[in-house]
Amino acid sequence: MNLLYNPWPWYVAGPLIALTMFILLYAGKKFGMSSNLTTMCSIGGAGKYSDYFKFDWKSQRWNLIVVVGAIIGGFIASQYMSDNTVKINPEVAQQLSNDYGIESAGEAYLPTELFASEQLTNPFVLVILILGGFLVGFGARYAGGCTSGHAISGLSNLQLPSLIAVIGFFIGGLVMIHLLFPLIFS
Amino acid sequence: MKYLSYLTIGIFFGIIMYKSEAASWFRIYEMFQFGSFHMYGIIGSALVIGVIGVQIIKKYNIKAIGGTEMNLHPKKKGVTNYLIGGIIFGLGWALAGACPGPMYVLAGAGYYSILVVIAGALLGTFVYGVVKNKLPH
Hints:
The structure holds two protein chains of two kinds.
Chain A: H1 2-5, H2 10-26, H3 35-43, H4 61-80, H5 90-100, H6 112-115, H7 123-143, H8 147-156, H9 160-185
Helix pairs in contact in A: 8-9
Chain B: H1 2-19, H2 25-32, H3 38-59, H4 80-96, H5 100-108, H6 114-131
Helix pairs in contact in B: 1-5, 5-6
């Protein structure tokens, strides 16, 4: 039972993610999660404001069902298969605590300093969450895909545009963590 | 029946994301600090198998269910939108600690603050759709 309960190592998770992609390819679809955001905008009536959202969203229903599944999967995994803590490199955890006062590494799945529901009344935290989400949504559409669409699907198909996008993901991530975090959090 | 299989794929994917901790803000932070091989191992091993599998599909012309072509179209050529869009995505990925798949997984796991992140992502998607034609691509 420990195999199910303990965190899964990378060499289990990576191949299973590849399997997810192949199952979707075999179904005649493709593995890409961020396009669901476009579909939801379209369902919400965004077509009134831009032709970008004018498409037959019903053709994307299958992917929304995948999203529903992912929600259920998150529920099952967190309720029955995990103690909901993440043990990262102790040095990194120490650095998070020393530099930014984020003390919950090793004790929570997400930093409680940012994701505890009580923190939603904190304007600073609210701005971080909205801004983070905004950049993810905007950037994924501008780049034409996210981690699943480019880093997994696109690179597996040896697509140069996906390589450029993934290099961009890492430039952005490194700039955020190494240059902007010290300005934002300390 | 068809929808049931997509639901199953989604559940499978959600459990993998949560159990591998790829949905954890801490793991994303640690990755960009080069503090562990974990995330690189996940993406790298998925990729190695992905590349080999796609090559096999192409070599033997394996069809999708029902005999249709697999959805392996080449991406549109370009640099600007992929690079700038990618950088913007990366900034958000590191800040929110979640990409578009794990967001839903975390919502299911009961981290309701992630709904604010999802709302932000929907807003970002919407704004892109509105200003798209004014951006360099």
